[in-house]
Amino acid sequence: MYKAIGGVVAGTLLAVSGANAGMITDTVNQSQYVGWYGSHSYTHNINDDGFVLGSAVSGSLSIDIADDSSRWWDFGETILFVIEAFDFDTGGIQFGTANFGNNLQAQALGALNADGYLDVTVTSLYGDFYVGRSVLTVITEAVPEPGTLALLGLGLAGLGAARRRKA
């Protein structure tokens, strides 16, 4: 009888552990010019990629920035990145290509978990540049599927029935 109970428990644990964490990647391709003191805003949408609201546990954002020219007097830019109202200042003049890459903070993850959208604004504090490809990578926690929950329920019911027979 213990072998039967052990089999039910092992099968249930195997089914539950089969629901692994996932990774969702959303890419926004653009070639948007941002002039002096100008800005450009866009939104990542991961709802179409199988995202379950509230399941994002971490993420990162990478934005390609390119200098608009190679003139000797055009020596760089200072850029402010705002992700869901959280500022990421690059901290000074960036020469040539100034790509942005950073992990999402709690406020940005909270906004992403709420509706599946991530709002991004790139602002020129000094200089002009092009905003290129933006890649959002989100790690999601495992969300049990209905079949997994049903199997867990059957396993628990089997354990309860086995205990009742024993008594």
TrEMBL record:
The keyword Signal is assigned to this record: yes
InterPro entries: Ice-binding_C
Keywords noted in UniProt: Signal
UniProt entry tagged with the keyword Signal: yes
Name this protein carries in UniProt: Ice-binding protein C-terminal domain-containing protein
Signal sequence interval, chain numbering: 1-21
Protein species of origin: Marinobacter salsuginis
Ranges of residues in domain Ice-binding protein C-terminal: 142-165
Superkingdom field: Bacteria
